[in-house]
Amino acid sequence: MMRSIRKLSTDEIPLFADIAINAYPGTTQNTKEFRERFVSNLLFIQEQEDSIDLFGLFLGDKLVGGMRVHYYQMNLFSKIVNIGGVGLVAVDLIHKKEKVAKDLICFFIEYFRERDVTLVSLYPFNPEFYKKMGFGPGTKINQYQVEPSSFPKADSKEGVRFLQPSDQQQILACYNRYALTKHGLFLKTDFDLNNIFKNPDNKVIGYFYNNQLEAYLVFNFEKSVDNFLINNIVVKELITETPTSLMKICGFLQNQADQIRRVIINTQDDSLDFLVQDARNGTDHLIPSVYHETNTSGTGVMYRIIQVRKFLENMNGFNFNNQSCLFKLTVVDSLYEETTSLIIQVDRGKLSFPEIEKFEFEITLDVAYFSSLFMGVIDPNRLYQYGKLKISEPAYLGRFNELFRNHERPFCLTAF
Known about the structure:
It is built from 11 helices and 21 strands. Helices cover 26% and strands 33% of the residues. One of its GO terms (molecular function) is aminoglycoside N-acetyltransferase activity. One of its GO terms (biological process) is aminoglycoside antibiotic catabolic process.
């Protein structure tokens, strides 16, 4: 039966909602009220949200799967580029193991290639599945559970207050200023912004200096099962532009020690130990010989470069550590059974594509690891040691590694 993928019409949204509810039973509720809210939210997205579209895969006239496609902008080493995102990939339970998810992702990749986008991203339901499809791991997330008293005190509470929906433009400006300083961050969309206050459980604290918001904290409470007077604070989003603004937020958290057991922070920053007095998470777990458990970590956001040369051209102006070399890059894409080869000249850190055949050495790797490498997640030395990167002349490995020395890892605060 013929397969087709297209944008869903409004009368098809309830069908997709049922597929998604069945596909993700752990994150949905089997109630009429939940389904009505879910359908209403999907209809709003499809009809009114410019940054998101819903697509479905059909077998003949039957909808058997779908996905949510996002249109984002991202800071790529201080240059703002377009990036595609995909979420809510859902398959009808009857039609699992029929490559519906694979066809949806292939369509997603081609959809953004046609729009001249060079990079896409997702959060995997199964990292192995998406790695086979050419998506490389991004920066890991770390979950800290810190006692409030371990946060540093602030010199005063001046400028700190609860934020309201009327402060949304200040939040947007604060976040996007911060995003312009951090490689990997997506600019915040109106949909992301509205969701902050749409969730009634969210509390938002902000710090103002000279009438400008310089920091904000989105959090909610996690209730204790054994004592209603003691709860946890779960940090949903934390943005601070200056050391002073960070201390103001820390001071707020420190002041909650009388009724808050732990502050739970999920962050791609693994250096929280240097901010708080005691980063141990309360498990008292020792890792041999004597390493105190401070956080748990996990893999999540993944990236895929979908147009190799154009992506590298987007890095025009980026300085590869003032290094110079001439090499052949070969990127293998097993999903499409294709190989891309380029001669790349790096002259005092600047990249170009000379029309010549000679080169000093050749680098060969899969598109998944190529994506992680050029996003700054991992360095060539480690990929070589793990057997994921091949080099024709190992003597040049050190020079090639220097191109990526101290590259900033990508941070991502956007859930999609």
